[in-house]
UniProtKB/TrEMBL annotation:
Organism: Gossypium trilobum
Domain Myb-like, first and last residues per copy: 7-59, 60-129
UniProt keywords, alphabetically: DNA-binding, Nucleus, Repeat, Transcription, Transcription regulation
Pfam families: Myb_DNA-bind_6
One of the record's GO cellular component terms: nucleus
Name of the featured protein: Uncharacterized protein
InterPro entries reported in the protein's UniProt record: Homeodomain-like_sf, Myb_dom, Plant_SW-associated_TFs, SANT/Myb
UniProt superkingdom: Eukaryota
Domain HTH myb-type: 7-63, 64-133
Amino acid sequence: MAKSVENRALKKGAWSPEEDKKLIAYIKRYGIWNWAEMAKPAGLQRSGKSCRLRWVNYLRPGIKHGNFTKEEEETIIDLHEKLGNRSFHVQVVSSSGQIMVELNRWSVIASKLPGRTDNEIKNHWHAHLSKRLKYDLNSLPDMSDAEFDQYSSFKTDPPPTNVPNALISESSAATSTNSLPSSSSNPKQ
């Protein structure tokens, strides 16, 4: 019961610059030891998981911020094609015995792109690269992400609703309905 009352007082959502400064200062002074126990003495009303994710994905020294280069994007596309949707099990032999570690494809790709996190790569893949690959890249001109997003939304958005009825009836009369599939036909057959 005490834990659920404590969890209700935790802050959620975007991190403030002050919170970032507190976490960085605490880690510089005391190091990383137990994420679940670090938040309170650091003066943060965050969960240990939230502190860990903020550090690992945004605040850790050496993380690159900003746009991906063409070379980074090519590496992501190439490795994603080779790795697919698999996880990988790696055996690490230490002095105390063997340890099995599971890596997902984003972690493997991140290991080839210094300064980029697996989370950042995954988000960039889903927000930009996977959309680009749905189209034949050779037939599209070289364009920025914003231009591509505009192009791809143009291709998938429904037609405008402010077209005069006279134009709609003229264009639909010119189209033969015999070549269109009926609404009851199954396209998978």
